[in-house]
Amino acid sequence: MPSPRIAIGPAPYDPAAADWIVRAVVEGGGTPVTPDEGADALVWLPFGSPDQLRQTLEAEPGVRWVQLPFAGIERVTKLGLVTSERTWTCAKGSYADVVAEHALFLALAGLRRARTRFDATSWGEAAGTTLFDQRVTILGGGGITESLLALLAPFRVEATVVRRRPEPLAGAARTVATEALDEALPGALVVFVALALTPETTGIIGARQLELMDRDAWLVNVARGPHVDTDALVTALAAGQIAGAGLDVTDPEPLPDGHPLWTEPRALITPHTADTADMIRPRLAARIKANVAHFAAGEPLEGLVDSAAGY
Ligand SMILES: NC(=O)c1ccc[n+]([C@@H]2O[C@H](COP(=O)([O-])OP(=O)(O)OC[C@H]3O[C@@H](n4cnc5c(N)ncnc54)[C@H](OP(=O)(O)O)[C@@H]3O)[C@@H](O)[C@H]2O)c1
Asked: pLDDT of 83-123, one tens digit each?
């Protein structure tokens, strides 16, 4: 196939802000064009909105493949844009290493009482829990979970993975299907949330699941805020029902000033910074370059979206 014509959208964009994406397309063997120039494929920029994406695709019926810049694509699937008429790829797995790093950071910070200790103005009592030789449960069995299992291996944890298709994963003691979630919660010192947001996984951690968790357990969410019922979490934390929650994502997001989670001593909150723009850039560029090369060669693409499953 001759060099594929790859539109970069939305147009117009600031070339200085998008030059790394243009470079990735060229290095992958593509010819960058603007979305109104008859493209074979569309690479969508991180700052393009789903509404702009819909308009761009309506104006570009020849686009056979769309590359999205995020790992979680629920804002696009909600608009009904992701259908089997085109091939869709996203950044699933691309940011996994740094997001897993952040999940481990939140877990260790919680277990070692970081919030209490770093805010302290006097010596206080000795407290803290080790992660070594403990049981953990991870919701999701994708890129983040694979990276997290590798980071957790030196801690000799016994990991249970809960995923939609219960295929085994290297580093996990067992993998179970979503229906078995409630049985996978008791006994876990840390419950990590690292799965895709779909209608089935919205509110997957609610009052019942928080009740099933141990009193010394930490909940760590690095996926999407709506996976967790925020009101139920606020209640569970205030009641000391679980030891704490490390949250990189919240519902609502951004978490408004004055929200009870800000002053909850058992909550550790980071503002959706598990992957910052500096971390995203090289990882997304690598995905785009690889996929443009695969597209040009007629090979299977990386980060393929299952349009029926919605992730
Ligand atoms: N905090 C951040 O900055 C940040 C950064 C990147 C990603 N994220 C979020 O993290 C999510 C995971 O990222 P990733 O790269 O690991 O994506 P991924 O490779 O697409 O993994 C998604 C996982 O979700 C699982 N899943 C989907 N529906 C499920 C269900 N009903 N029950 C149980 N598991 C289900 C899938 O299970 P199967 O494997 O069985 O299909 C898959 O393992 C993304 O979708 C995104 O929302 C957040």
From this structure: 999 999 999 999 999 999 999 999 999 999 999 999 999 99
Nearest residue (CA) to ligand 1, atom 34: 163
C-alpha 76/C-alpha 82 separation (Å) is 7
Distance (Å, rounded) from C-alpha 306 to C-alpha 183? Answer: 28
- pLDDT tops 90 at residue 16: no
What distance in angstroms lies between residue 195's CA and the mean position of ligand 1's atoms?
Answer: 3
Catalytic residue selected from 102, 115, 163, 224: 224
Q: Name 178's Cβ contacts closer than 8 Å, sequence gap at least 6.
A: 162, 163, 164, 200, 201, 204
List pLDDT tens digits, range 249-262.
999 999 999 999 99
Does position 11 have pLDDT exceeding 80, yes or no?
Answer: yes
The two tokens of residue 246 are 């490390």
Find the 292 Cα to ligand 1 centroid distance in Å: 23
CA distance 142 to 55: 31
